Amino acid sequence: MVGESNYTECVVKRRGGTAGEILLKSLLVFAVLVSALIALLLTGVLQFLGFALLIGAFFFALSMWPKFRKEFEYIFVDGQIDIDVMYSGSTRKHLRRFDMDKIEIVAPVDSHSLDGYKHLNLKAADYTSQVAGRDVYAIFLKAEKGQEKILFEPDDNFLTYMKKKSPRKVEYTPVKKADKD
Known about the structure:
Elements: E1 7-13, H1 19-41, H2 45-64, E2 70-77, E3 80-87, E4 91-99, E5 103-108, E6 124-127, E7 137-143, E8 146-152, H3 156-165, H4 177-180
Parallel strand pairs: 6-8
Antiparallel strand pairs: 1-2, 2-3, 3-4, 5-7, 7-8
Helix pairs in contact: 1-2
């Protein structure tokens, strides 16, 4: 049950990656392999430059690789939602902050409650795990640049806090323990 404080958080690990991330990983590996081939084929002073290129490409790829392991953290505090991304569990970057007052609706992406927003054709900011079968929710909110659409995967506790703060904006029915079994 919801406690006395108005704070909760939820962490979602992104699995795999998008096609762009897979392409970027492949390009990084390809760049290191091509640098190694160049370093081996060159002779004399140029070989030294080839090895410098190889070392540079290797360390660049090494520094970029952790950015592919992402976790999104959603934090709810007194009606304010923060979304952060953590790379490899060590580096945190703040992505978004918005108030429940700015939100128009929160509902599952397949809900009929969102039918009135389909005509907007907004590009969604995707902060989900991208795992099929997960409960993905959409947030439509009024922002300074117009309307925005955010996709996220909150847990039951997070949705309960949101529903408590703005019951008319959040489409969520708490699941009882007996219903889950």
